[in-house]
Amino acid sequence: MRLFFGGNWKMNKTTAEARTYLDTFLGPLSSYDADIVLFCPYMILPAASQKAKGTPLSLGAQNLYPKPSGAYTGEISPAMVKEFATYVLLGHSERRIYLGETDSFINEKVRVALREDLKVVLCVGETAKERKEGKSSAVVRKQLRACLKDIPGNNLNSIIIAYEPVWAISTFPGAKPAQPADAEEMHALIKGWFTKQYGKETRVIYGGSVKPDNCEELIVHQHIDGFLPGGASLDPESFLRIINRSLEARKRAKKP
Ligand code: PEP
């Protein structure tokens, strides 16, 4: 499957900082055969989309509200996202944990986003406690089932799953990256779930303390189709190294 690299900037960077970042980041992108997306704060999207015009970079929002318009102070509608972005990140664990987002609310957002022709990167992943208790597979299957409830299979080209174990996300205390074999096992499980549910797979990318130094050992695994780095995407050189090293490692591994 075609590799996908999404940078999750979270609540970082001003528009001026984003412009400087893109001055470095955009140049090398045309030599990479992969989907490359920056999930920027909303405020940056207009300027970033102007700079990215005519380049291989796609942009994504980090959230949306599942209503077309109305009295939802502080929220952003799918149509507003669509003016500047083609992707939206949904179900990120920081939103689940800090803002109390539930699977059913995330499902509403997925439905609305797809209806508006946005591409969705849906995050799933277990906590450290759930992993310790041997519940990782059950938790992730439940998240998939609930977040994708009533989503028909003809949408699969617009859905990417990000497996992001909460215990691996660098900003949570005690985080450490997943062992490649553990990540691969969960990716295979997610792809198996899709095959059973829809008769076909979708891309599954990994997120959780991905860095230039550990991307190669992860990407050589069969079911890992790319990455969603957070911290390491904030520096353009570091994100470019992840993309470059992953593509080279995959070529060497001769994955289909
Ligand atoms: C993320 O928040 O999506 C993420 C994976 O962050 P980090 O790469 O910093 O662990």
* Count of β-strands: 8
Q: What's the level 1 CATH class of the domain at 57-225?
A: Alpha Beta
Q: Tell me the number of helical segments per DSSP (H or I, 4 or more residues long).
A: 10
Report the principal-axis shape. Answer: globular
Which parts are unreliable, with pLDDT below 50 for 5 consecutive residues or more?
none
Q: Classify the beta-strand content into a percent band.
A: 5-15%
CATH fold call of the domain at 57-225: TIM Barrel
Distance between the termini: 7 Å
Radius of gyration: 17 Å
CATH superfamily of the domain at 57-225: Aldolase class I
Could you characterize the architecture of this molecule?
The chain has helices at residues 15-29, 45-52, 78-82, 93-98, 103-115, 128-132, 136-147, 180-198, 215-219, 236-253; strands at residues 4-8, 35-39, 57-61, 87-90, 119-124, 159-163, 204-206, 226-227. The protein has 256 residues and is α/β, with parallel strands linked by helices. The protein has a domain at 57-225: Aldolase class I (TIM Barrel), CATH 3.20.20. Strands 7-6-5-4-3-2-1-8 form an eight-stranded parallel sheet, covered by helices on one side. Helix 3 (78-82) links the parallel strand 3 and strand 4 (87-90). Helix 1 (15-29) packs parallel to helix 2.
